[in-house]
């Protein structure tokens, strides 16, 4: 009986860590990669809050090594030198202000937590807050950590280890980054203290970087010592942090993502890989009729889903030919499918423009991040892409909010790459991936009336700035998406009805 009780307790805790704790009526997280805290706070108030976004993944907030020899690459943020809250994105006061303002706007904050390792060994030795380390002695006085807090004997993961040797993947160094021993009580205390400090400041959860490189048993101890979310920031009493673990598992490795789903949610890399393949013509869209676990994806409640993230949009991580902002037409269609489909907990990527895959964010000659400028058409400037501000993307966030709580129904396809489906009686989308026009009378599942397509435009009073769709008393409408159009899709929902 005791074993059954303990099992049920473990399952209930895992479920608790799989709730993003979004404010009511909201969904969808966006990764504002390398944004400054002041800019994130402003974006919550002027755009993300009003547009119904649920949350933001931020870049690691703790002090990292400054790497001028590589012209301050994006990955210097993944070289921690202490747990002090001071980076190029801002200091602790700015971080605290950002979390408060975003929560007040109904937008939650999720921290990219680097708890697997500290820095690699470099000739440079100054952090973003002025801290230093003795790399040769594994000494990080600003934590403090010493040699006994790391895994010994020292070893470095090789490519072959992933197929055979889970102990080496978890106990050796990833790319030469000094590997912490999460089995150590002292190390656990430092990590839990860091994460609880962030929870007390009002964050809603964590992305666990390099989770595959840590033992699941050690992570369970750490997660279960975390505080409940701070009720002063609008979270319900007893709410647990949302945790999604980076576990790259495309099959054939010694470590499986299934080892981590009993703890918390997991980043589903197969999701973006398969949708990128389909929307680039490598698989017919009609096969998406049974999209979800039948494709070998994680269970719905276990899955943090995305098309691209900061790693694989640069060819790092996993997934092969991943769609990014650089293939805008197909990318926006894949995002629209992700947001229209009920499977998983979706995350959007918001990028800065790059050609060099090592390059850090737009910066001045002193290495300070340059803020995104906001153009008159709501797009971004100063080298920032801001996909979350593309109409075709933020309109689909609203679509997902309207469709919340409904299942997929009335699937239609043409036996090729034209597909359409409803979300209950709330919303309808059609996508044309063929090189000929989609022109069909389809069931929209919506009440009779005229609706504005949120892809080509928006509702403005009782008129549409883009296409309009007339739905009859039987819920059917003539749907037209030409193959040469700027976008591959059309989407309507109850909130876009312009007239009866």
What does this structure look like?
With 500 residues, the protein is of the alpha/beta class. It has ten helices and 21 strands. The strands form six sheets. The chain has an eight-stranded parallel β-barrel with strand order 1-2-3-4-5-6-7-8, surrounded by five helices. Strand 16 and strand 17 (463-464) form a beta hairpin. Helix 2 runs parallel beside helix 3, helix 6 (185-200) crosses helix 7 and helix 9 runs parallel beside helix 10. It is globular and about 75 Å long. The chain starts with a helix and ends with a strand.
Quote the beta fraction: 15-25%
Gross morphology? globular
Ranges where pLDDT stays below 50 over 5 or more residues in a row are none
- What is Rg? 23 Å
Mean pLDDT: 96
Q: Percent range for helical residues? A: 10-25%
Main sheet strand line-up = 1-2-3-4-5-6-7-8
Structural class: alpha/beta
Number of strands: 21
Summary of the model, kept short:
The chain is an alpha/beta fold. The chain is built from 10 helices and 21 strands.
Characteristic key phrases:
500 residues; eight-stranded parallel β-barrel; four-stranded antiparallel β-sheet; 10 helices; 22% helix
